[in-house]
Design brief:
- The radius of gyration is 24 Å and the shape is globular.
- The chain is built from 13 helices and 14 strands.
- The strands form five sheets. It has a three-stranded antiparallel sheet. It has a three-stranded antiparallel sheet with strand order 6-7-8, covered by helices on one side. The protein has a three-stranded antiparallel sheet with strand order 9-10-11, with helices on one face.
- By secondary structure, the protein is α+β, with helices and mostly antiparallel strands.
- It has three domains: 169 residues, no CATH class; 87 residues, PH-domain like, CATH 2.30.29; 39 residues, no CATH class.
- It binds zinc ion.
């Protein structure tokens, strides 16, 4: 292998590293390799730990689509707030959570320290970014300011807004339109840096074309940066903060990151919406119903570890129940029976005598708990 081939190989590895994203255990990714068929995926269990894992984006043009969703990282009820959520749709179990709980009438101060939220000068939650911390503080402060009787309506409206499919549809159309030029430029850079070098090294030789290619690459690189800033400004103006400018500097100086810069515009674009509502707009009915089933089972049969206090359980139960009601209504409004979705199906030859209501695994014993779901009691299968 000569020097040019070694250099090319290093570049390809750096590029592949840009296609991999560290993803939190309770993040939900909606993914399409070419923009037609959408799937749901999660952080890898095998390449990860209790907090998160790696998720891979499509490394070949047209660069794929990857939308990222994270549930609200705290649970709320009309009386209390806890930095604990039960929702976890991956097999890796609950990520580590702080499990702080405060009654709203006990809250005196809510302050931000970088990406941390402090309540009464005590760490309540560490957020993914400063922008998230600011957004969540606004929600907590609004809940604190209103009367207990108004909080149920506030929380219900907050969840319901995530199911605005008209708004999701409009945002998606705008996104496709506003990123058309950026996507084209990213694909041109991909050809310049990953395909053309192969032809040059193997067939054309370096000397005759390197100057011409270098100059034209710089032009496309700068055009891509300009298109990125314009698209980001139009689609995610709230996130043009310190994080954005440090990332912009990397994109400017590091070509593998420049090729993938459209991911930054895409990643959190729909994070204020519910993934089920996004799937309704983007994905097939079977993808949507499979996800709805997984979500409803997870919310209906949550897993609490021994350290969760009664106050935490009460708050999570209230919040989960509110989510279940809204998801069921959303499904009914879209001609899906939420109760039929949850009926487990076993063939008689399986000799199933009981099943876990959470993961719907069948067992040959008549009672006990599910080893995969901890304390969840098995339900006896009624024989016909
Ligand atoms: Zn189970």
């Amino acid at each position: 292998m000569n020097d040019y081939q070694t250099l090319y190989l290093v570049f390809v590895l750096l590029y592949l590293a840009e296609c991999v994203k560290w993803t939190h255990r309770y993040s939900i990714l909606i993914y399409s390799a070419i923009g037609n068929y959408w799937h749901v995926k999660f952080a890898s269990n095998s390449l990860g730990n209790r907090t998160g894992g790696f998720a891979f984006n499509n490394p070949i043009p047209p660069l794929g689509y990857l939308f990222h969703y994270r549930p609200l990282p705290f649970s709320i009820s009309p009386t209390a707030i806890t930095s604990f959520i039960t929702q976890v749709l991956t097999d890796g179990g609950q990520p580590k959570q702080l499990k702080r709980v405060f009654q709203f009438d006990q809250i005196k101060t809510v302050t931000q320290n970088s990406n941390h939220i402090n309540i009464n000068a005590e760490l309540f939650l560490s957020c993914r970014s400063e922008a998230d911390a600011k957004k969540f503080i606004a929600i907590i402060s609004e809940l604190k300011a209103i009367d207990k009787n108004q909080r149920a309506r506030y929380i219900t409206d907050f969840i319901s807004r995530q199911f605005d499919i008209q708004q999701i549809s409009t945002t998606y159309k705008t996104y496709r339109k506003q990123t058309r030029i950026l996507r084209l430029l990213c694909n041109i850079l991909w050809l310049y840096l990953l395909v053309l070098p192969l032809a040059i090294i193997n067939y054309l030789g370096i000397t005759p074309v390197v100057m011409w290619l270098g100059v034209s690459y710089v032009v496309f690189h700068l055009l891509t940066i300009i298109a990125f800033v314009i698209a980001f400004r139009q689609l995610q103006p709230d996130f043009m903060n310190a994080d954005f400018y440090s990332r912009l500097a990397i994109i400017l100086l590091f070509p593998p990151a420049t090729i993938r810069c459209i991911d930054l515009v895409t990643y959190d674009l729909f994070s204020d919406f519910h993934p089920l509502a996004s799937l309704h707009v983007l994905a097939s009915d079977s993808t949507k119903t499979m996800f709805a089933k997984k979500l409803l089972l997870d919310l209906s049969y949550p897993i609490f570890d021994e350290s969760a206090s009664p106050s935490i359980k009460e708050t999570c139960d209230w919040y989960n129940t509110r989510q279940i009601e809204i998801i069921r209504k959303f499904l009914r409004d879209n001609n899906i029976n939420p109760y039929e979705l949850l009926i487990p199906t076993f063939s008689e030859s399986d000799q199933i005598k009981s099943y876990c209501p959470r993961c719907q695994t069948g067992y040959s014993v008549t009672k006990g708990t599910c080893p995969d779901c901890g304390q969840i009691e098995l339900i006896k299968v009624e024989q016909n």
